[in-house]
Design a protein that fits this description.
The structure is a homodimer.
Chain A lengths: L5 H12 L17 E2 L12 H16 L3 H4 L5 H10 L9 E3 L3 H15 L5 E4 L5 H14 L2 E4 L5 H8 L3 E6 L12 H10 L3 E5 L11 H4 L3 E4 L14 E4 L43 H11 L7 H22 L6 E2 L11 E5 L3 H10 L2 E2 L1 E3 L3 E5 L7 H17 L14
Parallel strand pairs in A: 1-11, 3-4, 3-5, 5-6, 6-7
Antiparallel strand pairs in A: 2-8, 7-8, 9-10, 10-13, 12-13
Helix pairs in contact in A: 2-10, 4-10, 5-6, 11-13
Chain lengths: ~425, ~425
């Protein structure tokens, strides 16, 4: 595509040529001609996944059948994949488990945290948190006889000064999923701990996108999905991190047979397995787990600090493209310009967000929107190039200036 | 293999020749030379699954990417696969949902039942129920302030006569997973209803193996896994049935964004979707769901009454083989001889169950055992033949009489 700015094209080429992660793009099967900026909703297909799944279907399931629970280590997959994922979120082995959905893992973590802080009756969450985080906080509060308080991260200190003694757990995301704002995880964690509360991080928009040194932060719990920056596939199972220092005392709310200390004893009474394994509940979703395990090999040899450096270069470049190409066209960047406060996406506010995103999609530049008026462009350092972002900005410029899009709002009930 | 009984060989050949379901076996990719009698733990690979998953990986995920939530109907998959599965369990459309694990679906159903019967404080379950059913009943009781009572199905009438007014829900399985005994689902359902209680059926060992006319029975809730007789694959998602008459009033315990009335509105407050959809919680596990959907096509054109007729013929024949070939070798059949009380498996008690099952497996006859002393032989009318069962009985005869097995008990912590 002809760009409106030869200088930006030259800069993109320079940055991409100097990018040490550029070869990693070949680990993904991206369709030709598509610029994919929605990896923050669903990561693309890693090249390692299809051969793995073919093996899982034909050899492991089809030929080895039930024996695969032992012979192909299906039984240990939730813990093995958990450890592989733990390396990306600063978790030493034995603290991360993969299985179920983020919602279920959230319920487990919220319940466990509440029971580790008996007598404290408040669950604090962010009013801007993703809906499931808010709804599950309400569910956990109802089932445990607690109350939810909505406190913005910037107001946490003031809130804890007034009511901190009643707070059992602070449940936040490092990233505002709409604006792409990155909160100060270390400072918020320390603030919660000073008040005697535990902290639960939802890493859906952080895991695989930036370093999250959970152990070093002394975080208590974390959860996140496997299908965004980790590219584990649609509805890939989620993860749960529980810090080792809680392993002697934590209690999970839903007791399933796979979390039993002696699962094949099929005993009458529940006795929790040691460590993170007690958070296992039902039979693990093997296809999704092994797809995620294969997907995580895309990070082999990649340092999360490199990922963060490139991610910031990408979002910085896109903000520059926006400033140069989209000025005076009704766009307002809502992602902070300050790199310390910027996650791995750029969000632009525009009254015709829906129509513009659809028009981009029809021209093979795939982003997404969040109602009512935010266009979201997610970057993934493993495969996004600066050139991809210039293509997106150029197309957005052309679409907006020519009016080649439908400005009517979306139908209810559709994935946007 | 040379059989010890030419008469049984002749009978097996006659029965297999007359079997109207014999051609259905080609819908499964069973390995050559293997007799697979563990479909009641993990069904084999249906031929329809690999091409479906190849399409899901390369076209739907790899090429269509995030657009697949709409364009390939990923969003509706939990309800669509639920309706397809509902046909096998006597459920009219709109009452069955697929997703999460059996354990999570159990928690949803137990909680919903308890909240439909406020003021009643007992959850009744079977002391012989599968561990997860018992553990989850305890979890639900603790979180809802209720108590669990363990009552055998044969003692239910007496218990309800004494304490029926306090019972919110009776949570049973039609099948004892160890003995293969089939309970009288209709009588037990009526007994619970007469006491004003609701009934929850765990169909893990029934769905796909026999007709279960849930609507006709006026059952309230049912759950079950997708990976046994339904052959959906390892850790396939589970199902939840909630009778339509409860849809106006039921409340689920865990509120996730996909169960919201307006999921893409991303609203601050939870408002439940109408019907069965409110039991959706997190993002659905697409690989497992679409594998299960493909697997269910193995039932196309098959009447569940035919499945039951053939299943009884198979277990009847195996009991006959046992009586003729294994007499005086230390085996005690624990599955009822009465066909009305027999599910789709035959269990034999033997002190060396573990070693015998291992010896069979090494010779390509795959069954399983349940500690401490039960050998389980599951039959699936879609692919098991009478000849398969004669092979198993003949091999068991030879192994036992020659002592060609290790009589030591199993290691703890292994899938047996």
């Amino acid at each position: 595509m002809t760009t409106a700015s030869p200088a930006l094209a030259e800069l993109a080429a320079e940055l991409d040529t100097a990018d040490p992660l550029a070869p990693i793009r070949d680990r993904f099967l991206l369709p030709d001609g598509v610029v994919y900026l929605d990896g923050n909703s669903l990561g693309p297909l890693p090249a390692a996944v299809p051969p793995t799944i073919t093996d899982v279907l034909h050899r492991q399931w089809g030929t080895d059948l039930i024996r695969s629970w032992n012979d192909n280590d299906w039984w240990d997959a939730p813990l093995r994949v958990g450890d592989a994922l733990g390396r990306l979120i600063g978790a030493a082995p034995g603290q991360t488990l993969v299985g179920d959905s983020t919602s279920i893992q959230l319920f487990t973590a919220l319940s466990a945290a509440a029971r580790l802080r008996p007598g404290r009756e408040l669950l604090v969450t962010d009013p801007g948190h993703f809906p499931t985080d808010r709804y599950l906080a309400e569910s956990a509060a109802r089932l445990h006889g607690l109350r939810v308080r909505h406190v913005r991260p910037r107001d946490l200190d003031a809130f804890l000064a007034a009511e901190g003694e009643q707070v059992a757990v602070v449940s936040y995301s490092p990233v505002d999923y709409r604006t792409g704002e990155l909160h100060d995880v270390a400072t918020l964690t320390r603030a919660a701990h000073r008040a005697g509360a535990l902290v639960l991080w939802d890493l859906c928009h952080a895991a695989g996108a930036m370093p999250v040194p959970l152990d070093e932060l002394e975080a208590d719990f974390a959860v996140g999905c496997g299908y965004k920056f980790l590219s584990g596939g649609p509805g890939a199972p989620a993860f749960l991190y529980a810090a080792r220092r809680h392993h002697d005392s934590w209690q999970t709310p839903l007791h399933g047979w796979t979390g039993h200390a002696d699962p094949f004893g099929l005993q009458r009474d529940y006795a929790p397995a040691p460590g993170i394994a007690r958070a296992r509940i039902g039979t693990p979703p093997i296809l999704g787990l092994l797809s995620l395990e294969a997907a995580l090999t895309a990070f082999d040899g990649v340092d999360m600090a490199q990922v963060r450096t490139k991610s910031l270069s990408l979002t910085d470049f896109f903000l520059r493209c926006t400033a140069e190409l989209l000025a005076d066209l009704g766009f307002e960047p809502v992602t902070p310009a300050d790199p310390a406060r910027r996650a791995s996406q750029v969000s632009l506010r525009h009254p015709h967000a829906y129509g513009l995103v659809r028009a981009l999609t029809e021209q093979q530049v795939i982003a997404d929107m969040r109602a009512p008026d935010i266009l979201r462009f997610g970057v993934n350092a493993l495969y996004t190039s600066h050139r991809d972002l210039l293509t997106a900005a150029t197309l957005l410029h052309r679409t907006t200036t020519t009016g080649a899009y439908d400005p009517t709002p979306p139908d209810a009930g559709k994935v946007t």
